[in-house]
Automatic annotation (TrEMBL):
Protein name, UniProt field: Acetylornithine aminotransferase
Subunit-structure text: Homodimer.
Lineage summary: Bacteria, Pseudomonadati, Pseudomonadota, Alphaproteobacteria, Hyphomicrobiales
Organism from which the protein derives: Bradyrhizobium aeschynomenes
GO molecular function, one term: N2-acetyl-L-ornithine:2-oxoglutarate 5-aminotransferase activity
Cofactor note: Binds 1 pyridoxal phosphate per subunit.
Length: 398
């Protein structure tokens, strides 16, 4: 017999959550069980690329569920083949392995690079990653990440991930040795506070990996599928990576991710990689529905235009309140609030029906649906502006 309206204690307590329980969503909006409405500028950490409950995605899932949910990854299914071919045709890669989460895709990229090192680089296994990077929560992806909070956890870590500094090519060169097989990075470090790798730095990495015969791996779990205004973030720099991982927005809200590789890098042999639900047609149908909309030039142009509008509005209120830089690209942006007040702003915004994210104490991150409207951006800015005004007034009184 339950003694509370919601059995909160049945879920493992792995993060601080408000007691609010969401029951419905549509587009940029969520409703809790009391009927209160919230404007969502987190969207599952850039997961809901088309917002909440998009009809195209719901229809694709319903249609696929009546036809075939999964035949087992021991067999081909037509939906995964269609999605794989669509991703290959729209990228610089030749082969796709589907997974269920971004961490699993990144784990696969690490394994693929190490296999490549075994077969073609005399057993080289080290992958240079970056301070501030975030690649997931498996043991290997936590080890690859440069997140300080991960350092004391779950020791001993997986070895073989020396850390360079983002946008510092000399720090990368200094780490290259006979054991190096690859360089892996996010085009924009989201968890670190939305710090972009410059186009020039990505081009330098391309030249460096080519010169040393290394693999270039781009973790596009957060930047992929239109988030930056191009289908894939690496396209801005006009580089050709060897391996890419996708997640979050590729499924529009369902658990789908992918590992893509060139023919040269795709060296898995039978038995090296697998997964019970990988490439199941139900999730791949969602991926096809998302891609069908996101790849359209007019859709990507709207992402660019709305990103410019959001950036300009954030810059406006930053100047108004004496805050710091606005960073990022497209609809993955951050505002430097200078002082460690971001968590408090997030909490107050929640009370007012606005969902924001603070990846760092002095940083707000904005990850709205890719089809967010100008009116919704303006509504978010109004709430944030009001909150910052109150914080500024409180500071003056203090």
């Amino acid at each position: 017999m339950l003694t509370a309206p919601h059995p909160y204690e049945a879920l493992m307590d792995i993060t601080a959550r408000p007691r609010t329980v969401f029951v419905q969503g549509k587009g940029s909006w969520l409703w809790d069980d009391s009927g209160k409405r919230y404007l969502d500028f987190i969207q599952g950490w850039a997961v809901n690329s088309l917002g909440h409950a998009p009809p195209e995605l719901a229809q694709a899932l319903a249609d696929q569920a009546t036809r075939l949910i999964t035949p087992s990854p021991a067999y081909f299914n037509d939906t995964s083949l269609k999605l794989a071919k669509a991703l290959v045709d729209r990228s610089c890669f030749d082969q796709v392995f589907f997974t269920n989460s971004g961490a699993e895709a990144n784990e696969g990229a690490i394994k693929l690079a190490r296999k490549y090192g075994t077969l073609r680089k005399n057993g080289a296994y080290e992958i240079i990653t970056f301070e501030g990077g975030f690649h997931g929560r498996t043991l290997a992806t936590m080890s690859a990440s440069g997140k300080k909070a991960f350092e004391p956890l779950f020791e001993p870590k997986v070895q073989g991930f020396p850390k360079a500094r983002l946008n510092d090519i000399a720090s990368v060169e200094a780490l290259i040795s006979g054991n190096t097989v690859a360089i892996m990075l996010e085009p924009i470090q989201g968890e670190a506070g939305v710090w972009p790798a410059t186009d020039k730095f990505l081009q330098q990495l391309q030249a460096l990996t080519t010169r040393h015969g290394l693999l270039l791996i781009v973790d596009e779990i957060q930047t992929g599928m239109g988030r930056t205004g191009k289908l894939f973030g690496y396209e801005h720099a006009d580089v050709l990576p060897d391996i890419m991982t996708l997640g979050k927005g590729i499924g529009g809200g369902v658990p789908l991710a992918a590992l893509l590789a060139t023919d040269e890098a795709a060296c898995f042999e039978h038995g090296d990689q697998g997964g019970t639900f990988n490439g199941n047609p139900l999730m791949c149908a969602a991926g096809l529905a998302v891609l069908d909309l996101v790849e359209k030039p007019e859709f990507l142009k709207a992402v660019v235009d709305n990103g410019i509008y959001l950036e300009s509005e954030l810059q406006r209120i930053s100047a108004r309140h004496g805050l710091g830089d606005v960073r990022g690209r497209g609809l993955l942006l951050a505002l430097d609030v200078v002082r460690p007040i971001a968590p408090a702003l997030v909490a107050h915004a929640f009370e007012l029906g606005l969902l924001l994210n603070a990846p760092r104490p002095d940083t707000l991150r904005f990850m709205p649906a890719l089809n967010v409207t100008r009116d919704e951006i303006a509504a978010m800015i109004d709430v944030l502006d009001g909150l910052l005004t109150k914080v500024g007034a409180a500071r003056c009184v203090a």
